[in-house]
Specification:
With 212 residues, the protein is an all-alpha fold. The chain is 77% helix and 2% strand. It has nine helices and two strands; from the N terminus they run ααααββααααα. It starts with a helix and ends with a helix.
Length: 212
Amino acid sequence: MIVLDIAAPVCLMAGLTKTAAANASLLNNFEITATAIIALFVFKETISPRIWAAIACVTFASAMLFFDDISSLSFSWGSLLVLLASTCWGLENNCTRMLSAKDPMQIVTIKGIFSGLGSLTIAFVIGERDFNIPYILLAILLGFISYGLSIFFYIYAQRDLGAAKTSAYYAVAPFIGTALSFIIFQEIPSVIFLFALCIMLLGTYLATEKNT
């Protein structure tokens, strides 16, 4: 889990340098597919027909976003890296499910300390040594909210819902990220992106509907 929690953010950060923030946010929904498929084949969780339909929608939309230009099938390394990050988190979600009965505080503490040290080591190795105190403090605050509290609540949710369904409800987050990218970075979505967004919304609805 620690290795996966190191690999996923590194892939995501690298992917963000090669693709738009909105595209990366939407592709994070592939975590639904990765989590559900791994839960089915590795951990033998039951997948309902609605979840299968959701997986199909998310996978199809992700395939559309995987290419910069659908007409010429121009390959996007940024999208691939984001998909790799989502796959790492999908496997990590299932590993977390196995430990969800344990003390969430201990799990979050262990994952946070050692994953953070791993990422910090990688940063030093590649030569990133810019100690900008204000940015460091902002990063710590962001990490406390989006990583620490997020995992804490996520583990509690997995106790009752299982890995696949918890990941499905968690899929609201990428849409929030997409909306913020439009507001903050003034990104103009393409027609293909909007079409993929609609399919993602359908997939998320199917995955999070009460009867799943």
